[in-house]
Amino acid sequence: MGNDDRLRFLLEELRLVRAARGVTQDDLAKRIKWSSSTVAMVETGARKPPTGFWALVDDALQTGGTFQRLANQLGTPLWKVEWGSAESNASALRSYEPLVVPGLLQTEAYARAILGDAGMLRQEEVERHLADRLKRQEILTRENPPQLFAVLDEGVLHRPVGGPTVMRDQLHALAKATEEPHIWVHVVPLTVGAYPGLNGSFVVAVDPENRLTGYLDNQLHGDVIDGAEEVAALQLVWEAVRGQALPQGQSTDLIMKVAETWI
To answer: Which SUPFAM superfamilies match (predicted)?
Structure first.
């Protein structure tokens, strides 16, 4: 279901609930203190619901927050729903990042700096995305967590995200994560020249039946990859990237060495 289909579904529910309560568009407009023309345009899809619209509708129609909850759920992009399911159900995750620490291993301060400084988001959006990211990290501390194999470029360790204190704490946390038996972190050193990973970050999720799902991120949205040929291509890139990385012990030593430079 695309975003337009989701909105049409929600608006149809609004019309049905409003009619069932014997409330006209004019009545609803008066209750939420908006113009009748605005309510009419929203209901017909001529205008997107303004911020706060669904909360006002819930209050006016006494629906107990139903429309706001539906809006929150249906407003989630389909790719995010699909990848969230693949990630949470994975038995193993193979992650590569050339620019930043992988989201599942970010500290709260580092994640806030990424979202706030690089994400170009409003403050309330930063906090919402931050809460989502920290919630996702719970898969690593749950019972039967997935095996996480994370490879990152050494440049990630040197990029001053959030300042020296944030970076030092983040690198210490990254090294400490490797003490967990289900987490591997490998670093591709700067001495490696051009290699396939520099074309962009990706994650491959492996489910308990050994089915693979890929994920690519970009400036606007994420792409979930489940076609056999495309996933196979990602697997080849993963093998090439992993082959360029240092073993975990050497990687951890390098992470701690760079951490001590952040003073």
So the answer is: lambda repressor-like DNA-binding domains
Residues 144 and 70 in one domain: no
Question: Are residues 69 and 86 located together in one domain of the fold?
Answer: no
Considering the domain boundaries, does residue 183 fall inside one?
A: yes
Pair (58, 152) in one structural domain: no
Contact residues for 196 (Cβ-Cβ < 8 A; gap 6+):
237, 240, 241
Residues 252 and 180 grouped into a single domain? yes
Nearest one of 154, 153, 171 to 162, comparing CA atoms: 171
153-173 burial: b if 16+ Cβ within 10 Å, else e: bbebbeeebbeeebbbbbbbb
Q: Residue 12: beta bridge partners?
A: none
Number of structural domains the chain divides into: 2
Tell me the per-residue pLDDT of 150-178, one tens digit each, with 9 for 90 and over: 999 999 999 999 999 999 999 999 999 99
Report the interhelical angle of 53-61 vs 66-74 (nearest 10°). 150
* Long-range contacts (CB closer than 8 Å, 24 or more residues apart) made by 192-199: 192/244, 195/240, 195/241, 195/244, 196/237, 196/240, 196/241, 197/96, 197/98, 197/151, 197/153, 197/237, 197/240, 197/241, 197/244, 198/98, 198/153, 199/237
Domain that holds residue 96: 78-102+140-259
Torsion, Cα of 127, 130, 136, 142 (10° steps): -90
How many angstroms separate the most distant Cα atoms in the chain?
Answer: 72
- CATH number, domain containing residue 67: 1.10.260.40
